[in-house]
Amino acid sequence: DVPKVPDSRGDSDGPRRGSLCERHCAAINNVQGDLADLGCHLHRPRIPPATSTPPCCQQHSEEVCESCLVKTTLTAENAVEANKLSNNYKFGFKKWKSHVTARPWEDRSEIVKELYSDLNVIRGSGGSTLTCGNVLYLLLFGWWLSLLYVLVAAVMFVTVMGAPYGRLCWDLAGYFLWPFGKVIQKVEVPKSHQAREADVGESSALLRGPTPRRWRPQCRVGTGHWQGASTALWLCLAYPVLALAHGLVCVTAWLLVVLIPVAKLSARAASCVLLLPPERLLIRRLRMTEVPLEGEVILCCYSAANPYYYKYAVDGINVFAVNLLPLVLVTLVLGYVDTHNHLTGSAVKFTLALLSIMPLSYYIGMAIASISAQSNFAVGAVVNATFGSITELTFYITALIKGSREGNRCYAEVVKSALTGTLVGCVLFVPGLCMVIGGIRHQEQRFNSRSAGVSSALLFLSVGGVFAPTLFSKVYGKLVCGECHNVTQNPLGHYLCHNCHFDLMDNNGTLYYSHVQPLVYTVSILLPAAYLIGLFFTLKTHTHIYDIHISDCHMPGHHHSAVVHWSRWRALVILLLSTLCMSACADLATEHISPILTNSTISQYFIGVTVLAMVPELPEIVNGIQFALQNNLSLSIEIGNCIAVQVCMLQIPILVLFTIFYPTNFTLVFSDLHVYASMFSVVLMNYIFMDGKCDYFQGTVLVMVYFILLAVYFFAPSPSGC
């Protein structure tokens, strides 16, 4: 998504710094993809010849090139993007792919420029307009929109005084039936009228101009044109109907994303074309028009669909997050207005609440990345530690509160399943999927094995600490079975027992309150302490393990002042509002999950491990896939590892702390299935990541193991208490 930048790596036959430098080169390629999207360039760990040293670095050649021997030197577009890029490689910070500042227009690729271009540019003749996207427009919108214009034209002709507008509607009926390869012009006005219109400005962008900015009306017409009864009849009778139709087309096409050009077409037609007098409009076919055209071009469309519109952003927000935002409003209105389920059932409300978590997670992530990139290290660390796990914790706490009020232990078991599902999914599914998708484009991908080793060590420690109370209860607890039958009809023979579990409340709960509970509190103190040590190790004393250095040398043409999408205060407000909406959606999800848990034939284990665990992590999964496609597998792996570490070292201790002040049914004793699945996943992940390189086959192994574990959870019986 950036133009080619000059190579500053020096000649290929330049001297190297022995085998030590070659070992440092192994981890360099991990960050190339992220740099390419940031408009950065990369210095290889070699000593460039004097003739190839960039002019901007001549005065610092000794220091910079010496640091390049052990680090990857990055040059970002501006200080804010450099700070965001640096935060991506810091342990405990949210990894964010999208830009937090506006990209310079000259650095955009031609594909992206096409997305934000105006529909008033005439291209050279070439290519047929008979494409699949244009045919789809005809089937979805063109035929009935054209028929509507024909009906409006007939009505205007009947009124006699509206005949000029009737002729205009007749011409527009043919245009909107197949607008491709046609042009709508605004005819030049006589010179006597030009002075009167000199102060009337017109903006050229539609929804989004050539540079990111807010949308504004596209065509403003002087009041001197609105004279006569025909104009009043048009504005009162015909224009509202046509504007409503174009509004419907605009909204529908925008939600379909790939048809955003149709949305632009309809928006401009309603805001500009239909507001101009008929005598100032001229509709022509491009093949019958000589270039240059006389008059201003208002509409000129060649294609109704563009598959690259998934990259489209509004004020830095991806178009999918924009389209899903109304879903949050619908969810909150239905959930808190229709309390008696007259309009929809619990299953629909639960699904809507769960889907609403996805865009809110995106906005929370964007806000965290924006605040961290514009703040110092201390503020960024506090924001990431406070709001980094807010999505999951909000749901878990609301579920535990509801279970405590109803006296239903099933909610606590679902929370444990969701915790385990997040751990297993982020250890197996997220890195495995990134390896598979990244391996399709790159034959072999390398990553920083030492930084991954830090996360792996913390994972071993956290998993051992989290499941220590469970193993303790297995050793010292009393096995109690609900139903036992004598198989051999012999009192000394074999018995077949069902619903067996280790009872920790024997002898009035002496084992639990005297031994297990103190162990849980001890573990809940040690795990956050270990997390803080890991932060101090990676961010203070051993920062060199990430091989990242942000240089102050900038390539010519790539040093721009930062124009942030969200200021710190705006990001903070969005963060707080998103967190509030997240709490409301989590409350609705837990409110309407009870019928699903009661009436569903699927195991509650499976619901917690899949739906409740992975849906909130979808924005993180998308970020990991984007990093992997850019050959930056290190960040893809770190995304999964950091989430898994935060689950064990932050989220679970916070839940234990919450149960101290608000007693619930949550105890840090997991079922055997959770223990075996988690430990096996961590061991397998460390085995795959030992050599610092991977391919799509190793990713396939991780994904297949994850699906096997899902099958085990699917066929497992429901936990006790559900």
UniProtKB/TrEMBL annotation:
<feature type="transmembrane region" description="Helical">
    <location>
        <begin position="418"/>
        <end position="440"/>
    </location>
</feature>
<feature type="transmembrane region" description="Helical">
    <location>
        <begin position="317"/>
        <end position="337"/>
    </location>
</feature>
<dbReference type="Pfam" id="PF03733">
    <property type="entry name" value="YccF"/>
</dbReference>
<dbReference type="InterPro" id="IPR005185">
    <property type="entry name" value="YccF"/>
</dbReference>
<feature type="domain" description="Sodium/calcium exchanger membrane region">
    <location>
        <begin position="571"/>
        <end position="713"/>
    </location>
</feature>
<feature type="transmembrane region" description="Helical">
    <location>
        <begin position="452"/>
        <end position="472"/>
    </location>
</feature>
<feature type="transmembrane region" description="Helical">
    <location>
        <begin position="232"/>
        <end position="260"/>
    </location>
</feature>
<dbReference type="GO" id="GO:0015369">
    <property type="term" value="F:calcium:proton antiporter activity"/>
</dbReference>
<keyword id="KW-0106">Calcium</keyword>
<feature type="transmembrane region" description="Helical">
    <location>
        <begin position="343"/>
        <end position="365"/>
    </location>
</feature>
<dbReference type="InterPro" id="IPR004837">
    <property type="entry name" value="NaCa_Exmemb"/>
</dbReference>
<keyword id="KW-0406">Ion transport</keyword>
<keyword id="KW-0472">Membrane</keyword>
<dbReference type="GO" id="GO:0005774">
    <property type="term" value="C:vacuolar membrane"/>
</dbReference>
<feature type="transmembrane region" description="Helical">
    <location>
        <begin position="668"/>
        <end position="689"/>
    </location>
</feature>
<dbReference type="GO" id="GO:0006874">
    <property type="term" value="P:intracellular calcium ion homeostasis"/>
</dbReference>
<feature type="transmembrane region" description="Helical">
    <location>
        <begin position="571"/>
        <end position="590"/>
    </location>
</feature>
<keyword id="KW-0813">Transport</keyword>
<dbReference type="GO" id="GO:0012505">
    <property type="term" value="C:endomembrane system"/>
</dbReference>
<keyword id="KW-0050">Antiport</keyword>
<keyword id="KW-0812">Transmembrane</keyword>
<keyword id="KW-1133">Transmembrane helix</keyword>
<feature type="transmembrane region" description="Helical">
    <location>
        <begin position="377"/>
        <end position="398"/>
    </location>
</feature>
<feature type="domain" description="Inner membrane component">
    <location>
        <begin position="132"/>
        <end position="182"/>
    </location>
</feature>
<dbReference type="Pfam" id="PF01699">
    <property type="entry name" value="Na_Ca_ex"/>
</dbReference>
<feature type="domain" description="Sodium/calcium exchanger membrane region">
    <location>
        <begin position="348"/>
        <end position="468"/>
    </location>
</feature>
<protein>
    <submittedName>
        <fullName>VNX1 protein</fullName>
    </submittedName>
</protein>
<keyword id="KW-0109">Calcium transport</keyword>
<feature type="transmembrane region" description="Helical">
    <location>
        <begin position="519"/>
        <end position="539"/>
    </location>
</feature>
<dbReference type="InterPro" id="IPR004713">
    <property type="entry name" value="CaH_exchang"/>
</dbReference>
<feature type="transmembrane region" description="Helical">
    <location>
        <begin position="696"/>
        <end position="716"/>
    </location>
</feature>
<feature type="transmembrane region" description="Helical">
    <location>
        <begin position="135"/>
        <end position="158"/>
    </location>
</feature>
<feature type="transmembrane region" description="Helical">
    <location>
        <begin position="643"/>
        <end position="662"/>
    </location>
</feature>
<keyword id="KW-0597">Phosphoprotein</keyword>
<dbReference type="InterPro" id="IPR044880">
    <property type="entry name" value="NCX_ion-bd_dom_sf"/>
</dbReference>
<feature type="transmembrane region" description="Helical">
    <location>
        <begin position="602"/>
        <end position="622"/>
    </location>
</feature>
